[in-house]
Design a protein that fits this description.
The chain has 196 residues and is of the alpha+beta class. It contains five helices and four strands.
Length: 196
């Protein structure tokens, strides 16, 4: 067995090992720095979010207590009274809302050929609502009855009656038709019938 070293200088792979160790150390240090920066960033963010959450919870508690105080000050009788008054006001507005255009359009679609309308008057009756007095000229009583049937068929005219009718000097029938007019109810029915 040879006991002597024949090489002048022994070769050890120290440089490669030191290079690898240095590279691993650099990677570990970079990863550590990155992780530490992330931990610091997330802890700051967590602190800010926790602070904001506590502020929001405090504000919500304040709003809840304010709502409880407001509910305590509300009188249910006053609310009922106000809603009754509002309902009555809406009913009065509906009664006073009168569209001549809508009324004349209804007359145009229902008027028989042998009937002419010479005058229309409206008044507001507290019990019946809008009451119309319609002066008509027709050839026969059947023509007036036909007009009344067609008006009643629209659903907007109810309680039709003829308080006065007479034959004029030229042989035409002059009649007065009185009716209750409810355009709002009919509009609601028209809307309901258009639904599929």
């Amino acid at each position: 067995m040879i006991r002597t070293n024949l090489s002048t200088r022994p070769f050890y792979n120290e440089r490669v090992v030191h290079g690898w160790l240095l590279a691993v150390t650099v990677v570990v240090v970079a990863a550590t720095v990155f992780n530490i920066s992330r931990v610091i960033r997330y802890s700051r963010s967590d602190t800010e979010l926790a602070t904001q959450a506590s502020q929001n919870e405090a504000r919500a508690a304040d709003l809840r207590s304010a709502a409880v105080r407001l509910r305590a000050t509300i009188d249910s009788k006053q609310i009922d009274f106000a809603s009754t008054e509002a309902r009555q006001a809406n009913e009065l507005i509906d009664r006073r809302t009168f569209s001549w255009t809508g009324l004349l359009n209804r007359f145009e679609t229902t008027l028989p050929d042998n009937v002419r309308i010479t005058a229309v008057r409206n008044k507001l009756d507290p019990k019946r609502g809008i009451v119309l007095t319609i002066d008509v000229v027709a050839k026969t009583v059947d023509d007036v009855n036909d007009l009344m049937d067609k008006l009643e068929g629209t659903g907007a005219f109810t309680d039709l009656l003829t308080p006065d009718e007479h034959v004029d000097s030229d042989g035409t029938l002059v009649a007065v038709v009185e009716t209750t007019y409810r355009p709002v109810a009919v509009q609601a029915n028209d809307r309901g019938s258009r639904r599929p």
